[in-house]
Amino acid sequence: MRLVLVNPPKTNHERAEIAPPLGLLRIAEAAIHAGASVAIEDYNLLYHLLPELRSDFYQAATERLLSLAADFYGFTSMAVDSHVALELARRLKQARPDCSTLFGGPHFSSAADQFQLRYPWVDHIVKGDGELRVQQLISPLTGNDKLVVLGAQDSLRVPRSAYSLVDLGAYFYVNPNRVFNYEPNRGCRYKCTFCYSPGFYGAALDLEVDKVVADLALLKSYGAKRVFFVGDNLINNRKWVIALCSALHGANLGLDWYCYATLPDFDVELAQQMAEAGCSQVFMGIDVVGATSEKQFHKAFTRRESDLERKIRAIREAGISAPTCGFILCPPSHPGSKDWMTTIQAALATRRAGAEILFNVLNIYAGTEAEQNSPVHRTADALQTELLLDVPPVVQRNSYAPTNPGGFPFHSRYVPEDEWNGFLRMAHCLHTLVNLFPDELTTLIEKRRMTPVELAQMVVARTGELLAIQPEERRSREAREASHLFKHMKINDLSASPGGRISAFRQESW
Fold it and tell me: What whole-number distance in Å separates Cα of residue 71 and Cα of residue 3?
């Protein structure tokens, strides 16, 4: 029984996060224990190595997959690339009706019934964790009636036997940072209504500390230099995090690691221990600020800008040099838009304290409480992928969205076209302005009574059509236009040229 696991391409230019696909490696190990022969096709890696994938992706990828002659083809998805997985599966089934297709991941899992009903070439969708389900599918075909059932703890371990299926040298070539993904814990104790996590993972789970240290030592032996802890919230359990940091500090593995965490659970002591244990970067989804948004999305991580700023400064002073905070902006007709100014001011305070800022537009995911609470009419729209995301052209274009816009949140809009177009361009500009000119924006607010939104409107008008500008030049163009306006207003450049400032933050991030 032959199984081929497929990871669609996700990044176009940026390579710093490319790593062996942990989820597929786990599925591969479970399938190996069930008696299957397994191969992994990671197009997020191969897209950067094979010119034929960049010139005619579907043709080249389908030929490669057919040459592997699998009985089962399994696809994962991060929502933005779900249509790529669907189209590859359709072409495979058209060429080989005898093969079976299998889909997994939060997006397919949350809308499983919809996808199976609409797309007859979707044979199986795994809901939730996939290891046991894959074994149950494969074991009868291999004659293996002794399933290796993994416990909750073991399911988080490094999939040792599966790493032989990937070419680590190729990953290190494409991404010299030598990044590995690892999951020391799973789930999140918070239940934000816009998030997949509560419905997909259930209760939070932490792996035993000694096993985490052993696994990281193993990853280092594989060549790891940097490890991303992929769990939704590393600090669900403060006692466990402190024990983990103490053990990592004592083990002295020499690994740099970074993670997702939650601001309310951070304090100076914890930040210091994480930094001493090797943590250099932490992403915190502040997400919503303001009474309307906090009530609607069941999330209130900061009550005062001063508290937010104080915590960011403490995290940096403790030794975590690169905190990143994400904030959500809602379209003007959405109730959450009432909190725009509150959100932007919080982001400004956070940036001035030393954090990098990400402005994310609100996406309403299938199966989440946010979707249930506010059903919306959707229309296919590719602007978000074209303007805001670093994804290949094959991911930008989604031929399935026009007939099923609700199934593809990154390729659809839920407000009128004019509103959506203006909103995305405004959000793009605000991301540039807040990251590059936090002091100047603060001066505008305090001395000129001018809001960042008003300035962004002026910059958007001067910049012109962003899609006509190469992606790598868009923020530079916005920065130049903002500098001209500051000069006209006699607000001096306080530190460096726009070009120098742009290089100081991750332009590809959104």
Answer: 6
Decide which of 212 and 506 is more confident: 212
**Mean of pLDDT values over 86-109:** 94
pLDDT digits (tens, 9 = 90+) for 8-46: 999 999 999 999 999 999 999 989 988 999 999 999 999
Token digits for 494?
A: 């306080």
**Helices 22-33 and 131-142 sit at what angle, rounded to 10 degrees?**
30
pLDDT per residue as tens digits for the range 285-296: 887 676 676 666
Question: Cα separation of 356 and 277, whole Å?
Answer: 22
- Listed residue (126, 115, 121, 10) closest to 403, CA to CA: 115
What is the per-residue pLDDT for 504?
46
User: Does the pLDDT at position 269 exceed 50?
Assistant: yes
How many CA atoms does the CB half-sphere of 71 hold within 13 Å? 12
Check residue 149 and report its DSSP letter: P
CATH class label, 176-372: alpha beta
Whether the CB-CB separation of 186 and 220 falls below 8 Å is answered with: no
Cα–Cα distance between 458 and 11 in angstroms, integer?
Answer: 31
2-152 — its CATH code? 3.40.50.280
CA dihedral 255, 230, 211, 174 (to 10 degrees): -50
What dihedral do alpha carbons 277, 206, 44, 75 form, nearest 10°? Answer: 170
Average pLDDT, the chain: 88
Query: Alpha-carbon distance 353 to 149, whole Å?
Result: 48
Q: Is 409 exposed, middle or buried (0-12, 13-18, 19+ CB in 10 A)?
A: buried
For the chain, give every domain's residue range: 2-152, 176-372, 434-510
Q: How far apart are the C-alpha atoms of 356 and 23, rounded to whole Å?
A: 28
